[in-house]
Amino acid sequence: MTEREEFDVLFLGGGPAGYVGALYAAKLGLRVAVVERDRLGGTCLHRGCIPTKALLQTAALYRAIREAGPRAGVTADGVRFDAAAAHRAKGEAVLRLEQGIQHLFKRARIEVFRGTGRLLGPSIFAPAGAVGVRGEGGEDVVLTPKAVVIATGSRPKTLPGLPPDGRRIVTSDEALTLEEVPRSAVIVGGGAIGVEWASLWRDLGAAVTVVEAAETLLPGEDAAIGRELARQFKKRGIRVLTGATVDVDGTESLPDGVRVRVRPVHGAGDGNVLAADVVLVAVGRAPNVEDLGLEAAGVRLENGFIATGPHYETTAPSLYAAGDVIGPPMLAHYAQAVARRVIDHLAGRGGGRLDPRLVPRAVYGFPEVAAVGLTEAAARAEGRDVAVGTFPFRGIGKAVIEGEVDGFVKIVADRSTRDVLGVHIIGPRATELIGEGALALLMEAAVDELGEAIRPHPTLSEALLEAALAVDGLAIHA
Ligand code: NAD
Questions:
Q1: Which EC class does it fall in (predicted)?
Q2: pTM to 2 decimals?
């Protein structure tokens, strides 16, 4: 057994929280260790953000070549989707980014301990904050750093009656490994993951049904976004069943597919039976908090997630937490930002809790959806004097040129204080455009400033300017 005591900070987990926090800590001169049992980059790089966006890029190109191409005077014959090549491109993107992290780690002299880490202390054998690592070769290492950041991430939740078998009933983990696009799919859950997979599989030819328990798709978002998304999905031939769920006893595996019974969440009715090649269960994610020795170490959970204080400290001394284990929003960029806050605190540079309202949300299907801040309903529930400005992309020259005119920008503001409270976008490049909204909220911009900032013409960003003007009924191209 090896013992190491020289580290200032140890990250348990090398996902977006762990690897970004580690690099940032090293930049600040801390001695850093990362314990990782799988691959650096975590869910985001290997089973989430990056591989799904790589496949969505293939889908977007395929759609553009077939639909936007001929309209713009570019025709291509014999266009077809090559699943093997798409998976190769996805794999190459992941590998390249993983090697990038490895290279940065090496340069920053961050030590990676391969294996499963577990909190050992406090006990007569180990002080608080001691971490044991059972390496692949069976050798044990005990690390006693000054601080530990628990960043072990999350995994897909499953539903009783729909146990994943990796082939017919899958979570997002297995969906990524399917070699072929299913001919038909039922997607349970119309959150970020369900929506992205519905869009992807539809673009690649599948018949898709989304079953969402809430009244709209992406129920956490502004209701207008969910409604517009459902409208566009239906236009693309995606069946959207809201206020519906699957019957846990109504699932039947067949040799060539699955039959599920879908029923309304409220009210009576047997619902109907849907048959599909594949059922994707996308009903949220659960934190990886088991087998870490949390309880013995004195780390308290709240609603299943690790409870954290003003500096993301846990209830145990010198133990912190970041990423999906601390609860929603379960987003890679939030995980990274929290990890940096923890390090700022440890390095004596301030830190402190982030305002979750400043965290943008982004969903990368077609159409793209992105938002930051309060929905209209949430702003009203807070008793704000709400003013709303909405501007459709069909009034934006660049959107017309690009042939993507569906969707809109909606700005929620406070009529009396003029504060921007929320920015909601559905349509072309929403996930890039939302950066403006995030900056506006961080800088506590007045909605007038959002309308005054001059955008290049023609660009899609003009939709933000117009939506800001629309708050006072002054949008030009409306
Ligand atoms: P989610 O919580 O965002 O959505 C799950 C959806 O499933 C909800 O809309 C919920 O109402 C619905 N649901 C739950 N149980 C159901 C049932 N029995 N029948 C029908 N519907 C049911 O979770 P997700 O989409 O699985 O994503 C997991 C996490 O990963 C989220 O925190 C999400 O933010 C994150 N994520 C984000 C992105 C992105 O931002 N682009 C992409 C993927 C994942």
A1: oxidoreductase
A2: 0.97
pLDDT digits (tens, 9 = 90+) for 280-336: 999 999 999 999 999 999 999 999 999 999 999 999 999 999 999 999 999 999 999
- Confidence (pLDDT) at 60: 97
Separation between Cα atoms, residue 220 and residue 230, nearest integer Å: 14
State residue 398's pLDDT score. Answer: 98
Domain assignment of residue 361, yes or no: no
Span 190-216, pLDDT tens digits: 999 999 999 999 999 999 999 999 999
| Residues framing ligand 1 (Cβ under 6 A) | 159, 188-194, 196, 211-214, 219, 245-246, 282-285, 328-331, 361-364
- The annotation status of 284 as a binding-site residue, yes or no, is yes
Claim to verify: residue 20 and residue 136 sit in the same structural domain: yes
Pocket test of ligand 1: the residue of 46, 262, 283 to mutate, having most ligand atoms within 8 Å of its CB, is 283
pLDDT, residue 139, reads 75
94 and 119 assigned to the same domain: yes
Distance 387 CA to ligand 1 centre (A): 29
**Domain final residue, candidates 229, 264, 283:** 283
345 is catalytic: no
Co-location of 116 and 15 in the same domain: yes
Q: How far is Cα of residue 474 from the mean position of the Cα atoms in its chain?
A: 35
Q: Which of 186, 193, 281 to mutate to test the pocket of ligand 1 (most atoms within 8 A of CB)?
A: 193
3-state SS, residue 326: helix
Q: What is the b/e burial string over 126-140, where b = at least 16 CB atoms within 10 angstroms of the residue's CB?
A: bebbbbbbeeeeeee
Name the stretches of the chain with pLDDT < 50: none
* Dist. CA 3–CA 25, nearest whole Å: 22
| Predicted pLDDT at 463 | 98
CATH number for the domain spanning 179: value is 3.50.50.60
Total domains in the fold of the chain: 3
Residues 385, 429 share a domain: yes
Structural domain span for residue 466: 367-470
